[in-house]
Design brief:
By secondary structure, this protein is mostly beta strands. It has a single domain, classed as Umud Fragment, subunit A (Ribbon). It has 2 helices and 9 strands; from the N terminus they run ββαββββββαβ. It has a 9-stranded mixed β-sheet. A hairpin with a 2-residue loop joins strand 5 and strand 6. It starts with a strand and ends with a strand.
Length: 137
């Protein structure tokens, strides 16, 4: 499976974009993906950065993401492109089409709520549901 990563824009605008790395890959058996109802063509990996999802996903963890599953199921973990920043959060639907983003480390990272228009304005795109994770201690 390919990796998604944040890449600085060469124009020097101080922004990043989310792109697929052509150098990094992680091997998964097709049977493993099938058991999770994930199409191999829809699967990518993301490296978790920061402490917002600790202790479940410490900094440097890797998650498998099903890009074919972007409909939010309350309490499930998703990869998000937030204006070019890769984020992994637990999501909850809000009335009217917005979302609440929740971190496991809620002391340092309180809930964030975005309405449907805010999601457009802040360039929040749900990349897919997390179906697998790996942690190295």
């Amino acid at each position: 499976m390919p990796f998604l990563k944040e890449v600085e824009l060469s124009a020097g605008s101080g922004r990043t974009v989310v792109e697929q790395s052509h150098r990094q890959k992680l091997r998964f058996g097709k049977l493993t993906l099938r058991r999770q109802n994930v199409q191999p063509s829809e699967a990518v990996c993301v490296t978790v950065s920061g402490n917002s999802m600790e202790p479940v996903l410490p900094h440097g963890s890797t998650v498998g993401v099903d890009q074919g599953c972007t409909a939010v199921t309350d309490g499930k973990m998703y990869a998000i492109n937030h204006g070019g920043q890769l984020r992994v959060k637990t999501l909850y639907r809000l009335p009217g089409g917005g979302v609440r983003m929740r971190s496991y480390n809620r002391e340092e990272h309180p809930d964030e709520e975005y309405g449907p228009q805010e999601m457009i304005d802040k360039e929040i795109i749900i990349l897919g549901k997390v179906f697998w994770s790996s942690v190295l201690w």
